[in-house]
Design a protein that fits this description.
The complex is a heterodimer of chains A (161) and B (549). Chain A is α+β, with helices and mostly antiparallel strands. Chain A is 43% helix and 11% strand. A four-stranded mixed beta sheet of chain A has the order 2-1-3-4, covered by helices on one side. In chain A, β3 and β4 form a beta hairpin. The radius of gyration of chain B is 24 Å and the shape is globular. The chains are: A alpha+beta (161), B alpha/beta (549).
Chain lengths: 161, 549
């Protein structure tokens, strides 16, 4: 069992979610900040939070769901302890990001956007992180690793294990 | 004897990812240990030598000696030999690849020497987290001048006369935009800094925000004064966490110093700036979608008119400017319109910042006067193509732009010329491609991006991007049909003409420009089932072999 428990193991504290809604002002203009705050604390937006947010901000649950599903960085499922993000920017693309992604998919046995069953890894892609000078880039839990190739990606796994 | 020395350690995302924060800490500790009281260690933005892939980089000022690839274990030698004894550590200096010559001063490096830094004027020269350093290099002088010596109309006239155009891509004259904002009567107005730099391959806004956030803040306050707004927003994409942090620090410091808040500098002008983080939607760079996102709605564009200048954020008149436009404003006000108008080409004034990357020896941000030729940028500044390869094309303007083939090396980089060639200057992304890059695959790549990012509101964009992507995917997999090229033309033109917003109107550009300049590659894929660049996997044995290894 890893030291940091994945978010799923923790019960969702609905009281805290209500608090966040109130902290952010409780009007409809605060919807995105509320969602961002909940995600920062819980790692994702628990589906059961949707109605609570809607009630607190006096909007329809469908509007809350609509906003969550619109933006790429709002997640409705718990994420892995290690979130590996492959940059798909143009520079990364022409310098081999695709093969890095394919390698990671094979290595982890999951597809882009998925999480391993033990909640250890989530594999994701991002449109561009603006570190094009080091392309291709891989981000692991906000730490950028530049100038990647298949060997270096393998090294990262060795370090982590 | 002991002349004050400042050591700047680059602390932008690329150098940080190579461990520049450890180098910074090591330097501080070592300087303290050796009791060098005349040495000050600071973090800074990128030093602009185009060698970001050889970081972490360290500059010793005022001499301007710069080091590359510095590791914490190099620090005792660097401090003892250079900072104490004045003997630079030769093995960490930059060596020019072509000549083998060691160049100790960054000002002598070709990449740096041939640039003209206006928007990036302070990047690498100051600590972005210390407002005093920004003030010491003339920061907030333009604000004082605007607020205390000029009327809003005079500010607008000055910006108009300078010829400054929007650096976000469309190139709309900034002064005229402000004039619209000024002329609308309303009890409440807003100004917004669009820092939602979504184009893949563009990172100049990230760099400016990380290296010189106060320049943008100052520009936004001046914009607010000019149009008569008391509230400003910075809409910054969440993919840039460090930029978010630096701008937040800058806002706080500006508040403390009285550059934000009530009665700024005793002028009677009140202004505040709020920070909004994006959530990963490319289309939010479009102004009406950006406004929707600040209002906590789905970030979907709406038809214009009404333009945001009449009815924008919360239904109030709103003026939106790009990061680099705003960063230029203090320079225009401080040094005057005539000075600014003297830089650049006839219709495109000032400088442009390009994010040079891809198959190029030196990659990084390049700031050159508008109208500088492509070959100067790629060969003189960028150092050419690595591994002895041949330049094939230059992609400008990201997914809204096009590919300019190598046969136009003298193309001046400005708004007009690039759009004549079927591309756009756009936000300034410039990705260099060599003969191993397949142009059909490039078009497919951009379409896969715009298809995923299309918000789905209007039909041409939603369906057109999907259809074009399917056809391009089919071609790169070796299943293209003879009729595909004509179909692509048809769809591309329809999407371009009928889409609601800029995303749809420009997303066919990568397809149209590669079709017009590299039609032979499309035909080779379709008719001969062959990828001339050897990149499309099902069509080339060589590529699949490398993937396996």
């Amino acid at each position: 069992m890893p030291m940091n428990k994945p978010a799923t193991c923790r019960a969702i504290d609905m009281g805290r979610i209500k608090e966040i809604v109130m902290e952010c002002g409780g009007n409809k203009w605060a919807l995105i900040p509320v969602i961002q705050k909940i995600q920062n604390e819980f790692g994702y937006i628990p589906p059961e939070a949707v109605t609570v947010i809607a009630k607190g901000l006096k909007v329809f649950p469908s509007q809350v769901q609509g906003v969550i599903s619109f933006y790429a960085q709002f997640y409705t499922k718990p994420r892995g302890r290690q979130v590996i993000t492959v940059c798909r920017g143009t520079a990364c693309h022409v310098r081999g990001a695709e093969s890095v992604l394919n390698f990671l998919e094979d290595r982890l046995g999951i597809q882009e956007g998925e999480t391993t069953p033990d909640f250890e890894y989530t594999l994701d892609t991002v449109a561009c992180i603006g570190v094009c000078t080091l392309a291709p880039n891989v981000v692991i839990n906000k730490q950028v690793y530049g100038d990647m190739d298949l060997e270096k990606v393998q090294e990262l796994f060795k370090k982590g294990e | 004897m002991n002349q004050p020395i400042t050591v700047f350690v680059c602390a932008e995302t690329p150098c940080l990812s190579m461990g520049s924060d450890d180098v910074f800490e090591a330097l501080k500790a070592e300087v303290a240990r050796q009791k060098l009281t005349n040495v000050n260690i600071e973090i800074s933005g990128c030093h602009g030598h185009g060698l970001c892939n050889h970081g972490p980089s360290v500059v010793v000022e005022p001499e301007g000696v710069f080091y590359l690839g510095v590791r914490p274990e190099d620090v005792p030698e660097l401090v003892g030999s250079h900072l104490r004894d004045g003997r630079p550590v030769e093995r960490l200096l930059y060596q020019e690849k072509a000549t083998g010559k060691i160049i100790p001063h960054y000002r002598e490096i070709n990449f740096y020497k041939k640039q003209q830094r206006l928007i990036l004027r302070n990047c690498g020269r100051i600590n972005p987290e210390k407002i005093d350093q920004y003030i010491n290099v003339g920061g907030y002088r333009a604000l004082a001048k605007a607020l205390l010596e000029m009327t809003p109309i005079q500010v607008i006239e000055e910006v108009k006369r300078s010829g400054l155009r929007g650096r976000g891509g469309a190139g709309f004259p900034t002064g005229r935009k402000w004039e619209f904002g000024y002329n609308v009567l309303s009890d409440k107005k807003y100004v917004i800094c669009n820092a939602d730099e979504g184009d893949p391959g563009a990172f100049m806004d990230r760099s400016v925000l990380e290296a010189d956030p106060h320049a943008v803040v100052e520009g936004l306050i001046i914009a607010g004064y000019a149009i008569g707004a008391n509230d400003g927003y910075v809409y910054l994409r969440a993919e840039y966490p460090l930029a978010v942090k630096r701008v937040s620090i800058a806002l706080e410091q500006a508040r403390e110093k009285g550059f934000l808040g009530m009665d700024i500098l005793g002028s009677g002008f009140n202004f505040n700036i709020h920070m909004k983080e994006g959530a990963g939607a490319f289309v939010c760079g479009e102004e009406t979608a950006l406004i929707a996102s600040i209002e906590s709605l789905r970030g979907m564009p709406r038809p214009r008119p009404p333009y945001p200048a009449q009815s924008g954020l919360f239904g109030k008149p709103t003026t939106i400017n790009n990061v680099k436009t705003l960063a230029s404003v203090p320079a225009v006000i401080d040094r005057g319109a005539d000075w600014f108008a003297g830089i650049g080409s006839e219709k495109s004034k000032g400088t442009t910042v390009l994010a040079l990357s891809g198959k190029i020896v030196n990659s990084g941000l390049v700031e050159v006067p508008m109208g500088t030729s492509l070959s100067t940028i790629i060969f003189d500044i960028g150092g050419g193509i690595p591994d002895g390869r041949r330049l094939k094309a230059v992609q400008t303007g990201g997914p809204s732009g096009g590919c300019i083939p190598a046969r136009f090396p003298d193309t001046p980089v400005d708004y007009e010329t690039l759009s004549l060639l079927g591309s756009i200057l756009g936000s300034g992304g410039m990705v260099v491609m060599d003969d191993t890059t397949c142009m059909v695959e490039v078009a497919r790549y951009f379409l896969s991006f715009t298809q995923a990012e299309s918000c789905g509101k209007c039909v041409p964009c939603r369906l057109g991007t999907k259809q074009m992507l399917e056809i391009l995917t089919r071609i790169t997999r070796g299943r293209g049909k003879e009729s595909d090229i004509d179909t692509l033309y048809d769809i591309a033109r329809t999407v371009k003409e009928c889409s609601l917003c800029g995303l749809g109107q420009t997303c066919p550009n990568p397809v149209l420009s590669t079709l017009s300049y590299f039609r032979d590659e499309y035909e080779a894929h379709i008719k001969k089932k062959n990828c001339p660049a050897n990149q499309c996997r099902p069509l080339s044995r060589k590529a699949s072999a490398t993937v396996k290894s």
